[in-house]
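Project standup — Tuesday

K.O.: blocked on the structure for the chain from last sprint. Re-posting the sequence here as requested.
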Amino acid sequence: MSFNFLITRPEHDDTTFYLSNWCKDTIKLAEEKGAKVNDLHREKANKSEFEGRIFKSCPEFIVLNGHGNENSVTGHKNQELISVESDEKILKLNIIYAISCRSAKNLGKKCIEKGTKCYVGYTDDFIFVYEKEKISRPLTDETAKLFLEPSKLFIETIIKNNSVKDSLERSKKKIQENFIKTLSGNEQETALARYLWWNLRNFTFHGNQEVKISG
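H.V.: unblocked you, prediction finished:
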């Protein structure tokens, strides 16, 4: 299976550093599955690179790691990459997954209006909690894992050519499992449950949830 995969991985603060590192394995998986990977890492996660790669490779799957709001998602140092005001060709894509705050509220709908097949994201803030002493080693952070593993699972399931519907179901099931796990833990773990539930409630899609990266 051959497909084009584009991922943005800014790393200018704690949040983007964690998101970037938790997506490293998905890049390896995509390459193993025969994908041509466009990894916009750090300074490469800028508007010029982003638009250029889209026009050149027409990626079947795009993952956006970064800060966002109802109308846009940003890249390195909060440079806007995509917004409701973007060129129509930028908004006409296959599958987009935005690991950012609130972009599914308006931007996701706009992308569908302009021709994107499916937009997956969050209608409100995407929340994750991390351990400050693990900031230099994010993949060893068991607290952050509760929040970022389900997101990683969604990406991996899409890369394995499952539908958005199946990928969402598996990811949401993982969030639910982690929610139950925290509820049965100590007081500190129980406090995390509300944030997991928040993410679950705001994790959504627009468009055709039956779409896959290929076929």
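K.O.: great, moving the ticket to review. The mean pLDDT is 96. The beta strands are 3-9, 35-41, 61-65, 68-69, 72-74, 80-83, 95-99, 118-122, 203-207.
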